[in-house]
Amino acid sequence: MTSPKKIVVVGGTGMFGGSVARSLKDNPEFEVVLTTRDPNSPKASKCREEGFLLVKANSWNAAELGLVLAGAYGVFLNTDSDDLNFKNEVGPPESAMGKIVIDAAIRQNVKYFVFSGLPQSNRLTNGEVSILSFDNKTAIANYGRKAGFEAFVEVNCGWAMDIFFMETLSEFEDLSYGADSMDLRGDDYGDAVHAVFLEPSKYANHIIWAISDVASFQDVVDTYNRLTGTQVARFVPQTEPLKASTPGKTKEVNGLRNYCHYVQGKYCNNQVTSGRLLREMRALKAVATEARGKGHASTQSIDGFLRENAPVKLQSMSKI
């Protein structure tokens, strides 16, 4: 019997990293190791309770990374663009952290690297829309593709469905980024990455768009109202600049809207959000769910997501 392949999830206590870790954990083919800066944090404690192996490793510390990456088959990385230092441009940029992790993986002869990236907004808009997090993620991806891995793969997400119920985004009228919303359920993201690690060479230098469903914001509103039997949700396109909690976040959300307007809703690197992208994602989902021993499962739909969440969230959405 062969030994399980070690996958290191850098920053595994976050939403995307956690999704990847939970999916891989169900497959005995893999040994899942999570890194965390603070092993005593509530998120880290919860991961340990769920049976995960956590190792303290700061992503700025090459020596700590080297220890945890030794013997790894693959690495998953999602840098935290919402880190206040990154957002406010204090200290080294997000791209510097990504390069440190990539270099550490190369030194440990890691073969396969999966990165959670973002659209190449600066290039696609001919420099008219520069978004700090997008630019830094693009720099990391460009660096990773040339680093020397047998396969470097981007698995990029659309609009996470879970965001609809975040306190800061509880008013749909703030959601006016474009004609299409490429919606992702967090569980589906982890399954997409899982499927890539099963056949990483197949996806070398490929960008996968992790999309669970395709719908406009008006579709989301209509579905919510239909399922709850109310008319409390509404979509009112904003024409004025948006405001967020900090100057850095305000700049980012306006940049995101400007990008989506520039590409006319074609968020996925200026590709039409077609059935092809959704079919690719559903194929990955099918491969991963079978590997997890869960039989067949399709990607989450807006209807299905709201059926699970709208009844218990209705009170918090009453101001919409």
Number of domains: 1
**Portion in strands:** 5-15%
Report, as a whole number of angstroms, the end-to-end distance. Answer: 56 Å
Number of helices, counting only DSSP H or I runs of 4 residues or more: 12
Order of helices and strands: EHEHEHEHHEHHEEEHEEHHHH
Domain NmrA-like: 5-237
Organism: Penicillium desertorum
Pfam family, one: NmrA
Keywords: NADP
Brief account:
This protein has helices at 15-25, 42-49, 62-69, 84-87, 94-107, 121-124, 132-145, 186-198, 217-228, 247-262, 275-291, 302-313; strands spanning 5-10, 30-36, 53-56, 74-77, 112-115, 151-157, 159-160, 181-184, 207-210, 213-215. It is α/β, with parallel strands linked by helices and 320 residues long.
Tell me what you see in this structure.
The chain has a seven-stranded parallel sheet, with helices on both faces. A three-stranded mixed sheet has the order 7-8-10. The chain has a single domain (5-313), classed as Rossmann fold. With 320 residues, the chain is α/β, with parallel strands linked by helices. It is globular. It has twelve helices and ten strands. It has helices at 15-25, 42-49, 62-69, 84-87, 94-107, 121-124, 132-145, 186-198, 217-228, 247-262, 275-291, 302-313, and strands at 5-10, 30-36, 53-56, 74-77, 112-115, 151-157, 159-160, 181-184, 207-210, 213-215. Helix 3 (62-69) packs across helix 5 (94-107), helix 8 (186-198) crosses helix 11 (275-291) and helix 9 packs across helix 12 (302-313). Residues 167-184 and 314-320 have low confidence and may be disordered. Helix 2 links the parallel strand 2 (30-36) and strand 3 (53-56).
